[in-house]
C-alpha cells in the first residue's frame, strides 16, 4: 500500500506540474499600441516592436494597435481604453502617447519608443537614465553635438541657422534648446521658427527660408507629417535643411545623422517580452538608445540645391 501511495503521489505531482506548465504556455497577453501619427519613422518603430513581440511570444500575444492621427486628445482616449480593458502592457509610440499613458496608469507597464528625452517628456528632475515608475523604453535621440558638427561640415560659411519645430512637442523644444548651445559653440547665429500645428507649417517655413542660410529640423512629428509642405518652400528658395531623422530628410532635407527606428522599436519589443514572459521589473529598466548612427544625405535634393555630400555620407 505504501508503494502504491508513493506512486499515486508522484503521479499527482507530475500532473500538477504539467497542468501548471500548460496554463503558462496557454497564457494570452494583450498589448495595446498607441502611435501618435502615421509617418515612416513611427511606422518603422511600431513594426520593429511587433516583430520582436511576436518572435518572443508567438501566438500567445494579442496586439491592439491604434493611431491617434496626430491628436493628443485621441492619445488619451486610446490609452484610457487600454486601461479599461486592463491590457498587460502599453506601447506609447511618440511623446504624446507616452504622456497620456503615464497619466492614465501607474500599474500597467508602459514602454515608450521614438521618445527623444524622457526627462523633458515626463518632467523628471535629476535624470539618472531610469524613470523609476511603471515607465521605460527607448530613445530616438541622435547625438545633438554631432548634428551641429554636421551643419558645420556641410555649410562652413553659413552665418545663421533657423530652428524649425513644433512648439507643442516637448521633445522638439528640448532639442532646439540644446542645438542653440551647440551651434553657438561653432560660431553660428540661431533663430527659432515655431509652428503650433499643421496649419501654419508652410507659412513658418517660408519665414525661416527668407531669414536664414540653413534650417535645422529636430525629430518632430508634426514636421515629419508635413515634409511635402516644407519641401515646397525650401527647395524653390534654395534653403538647405539638416534634419534630426531620416524620414524628415527623405521628404525635405539634404542630410541627417540617422538612427534606425525599426531597431529601437525592436529593442522595445524585446523589453516587452522580458516584462511579460520573464517578469522583469519595468521600474528598474534603463532607457535604451540606438546602438549606432549613420551620416546620410538626400541625393535628389542635394542635386537640386547644388550641394555635394562629403565623403563618408550614405545616400538614403
Mind sketching the topology for me?
Blueprint: H1 2-25, E1 29-35, H2 40-57, E2 61-67, H3 72-85, E3 89-93, H4 95-104, E4 110-115, H5 118-122, E5 135-139, H6 144-154, E6 160-166, H7 170-185, E7 189-195, H8 201-211, E8 214-217, H9 221-224, H10 227-234, E9 241-243, H11 246-252, E10 255-258, H12 261-278, E11 288-289, E12 294-297, H13 299-305, E13 314-315
Parallel strand pairs: 1-2, 1-3, 3-4, 4-5, 5-11, 6-7, 6-8, 8-9, 9-10, 12-13
Antiparallel strand pairs: 10-12
Helix pairs in contact: 2-12, 3-4, 6-7, 8-10, 10-11
Keywords: Signal
Organism: Bullifex porci
Protein name: ABC transporter substrate-binding protein
Written overview of the protein:
The structure is a single chain. This protein is α/β, with parallel strands linked by helices. It has 2 domains: 28-140 and 261-285, Rossmann fold (3-Layer(aba) Sandwich); 144-258 and 294-315, 3-Layer(aba) Sandwich (Rossmann fold). 48% of the residues lie in helices and 20% in strands. The protein has helices spanning 2-25, 40-57, 72-85, 95-104, 118-122, 144-154, 170-185, 201-211, 221-224, 227-234, 246-252, 261-278, 299-305; strands at 29-35, 61-67, 89-93, 110-115, 135-139, 160-166, 189-195, 214-217, 241-243, 255-258, 288-289, 294-297, 314-315. It has a 7-stranded mixed β-sheet, sandwiched between helices. The chain has a 6-stranded parallel β-sheet with strand order 2-1-3-4-5-11, sandwiched between helices. Helix 7 (170-185) links the parallel strand 6 and strand 7. The radius of gyration is 23 Å and the shape is elongated. It starts with a helix and ends with a strand. Mean pLDDT is 92; it is low at 17-24.
Amino acid at each position: 500500500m505504501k508503494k502504491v501511495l508513493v506512486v499515486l503521489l508522484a503521479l499527482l505531482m507530475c500532473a500538477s506540474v504539467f497542468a501548471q506548465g500548460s496554463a503558462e504556455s496557454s497564457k494570452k497577453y494583450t498589448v495595446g499600441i498607441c502611435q501618435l501619427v502615421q509617418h515612416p519613422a513611427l511606422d518603422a518603430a511600431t513594426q520593429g516592436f511587433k516583430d520582436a513581440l511576436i518572435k518572443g511570444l508567438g501566438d500567445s500575444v494579442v496586439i491592439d494597435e491604434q493611431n491617434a492621427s496626430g491628436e493628443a486628445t485621441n492619445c488619451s482616449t486610446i490609452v484610457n481604453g487600454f486601461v479599461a480593458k486592463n491590457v498587460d502592457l502599453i506601447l506609447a509610440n511618440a511623446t504624446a502617447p507616452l504622456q497620456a499613458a503615464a497619466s492614465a496608469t501607474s500599474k500597467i507597464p508602459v514602454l515608450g519608443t521614438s521618445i527623444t528625452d524622457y526627462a523633458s517628456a515626463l518632467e523628471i528632475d535629476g535624470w539618472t537614465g531610469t524613470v523609476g515608475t511603471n515607465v521605460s523604453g527607448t530613445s530616438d535621440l541622435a547625438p545633438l553635438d554631432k548634428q551641429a558638427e554636421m551643419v558645420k561640415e556641410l555649410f562652413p560659411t553659413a552665418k545663421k541657422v533657423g530652428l524649425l519645430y513644433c512648439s507643442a512637442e516637448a521633445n522638439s523644444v528640448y532639442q532646439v534648446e540644446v542645438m542653440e548651445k551647440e551651434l553657438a559653440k561653432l560660431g553660428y547665429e540661431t533663430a527659432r521658427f515655431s509652428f503650433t500645428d499643421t496649419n501654419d507649417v508652410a507659412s513658418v517655413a517660408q519665414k525661416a527660408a527668407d531669414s536664414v542660410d540653413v534650417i535645422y529640423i529636430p525629430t518632430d512629428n508634426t514636421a515629419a507629417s508635413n515634409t511635402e509642405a516644407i519641401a515646397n518652400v525650401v527647395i524653390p528658395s534654395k534653403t538647405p535643411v539638416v534634419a534630426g531623422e531620416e524620414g524628415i530628410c527623405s521628404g525635405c532635407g539634404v542630410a541627417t545623422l540617422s538612427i534606425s527606428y525599426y531597431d529601437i522599436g525592436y529593442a522595445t519589443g524585446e523589453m516587452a517580452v522580458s516584462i511579460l514572459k520573464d517578469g522583469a521589473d519595468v521600474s528598474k529598466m534603463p532607457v535604451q538608445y540606438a546602438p549606432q548612427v549613420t551620416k546620410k544625405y538626400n541625393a535628389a535634393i542635394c542635386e537640386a540645391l547644388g550641394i555635394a555630400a562629403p565623403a563618408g555620407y550614405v545616400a538614403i
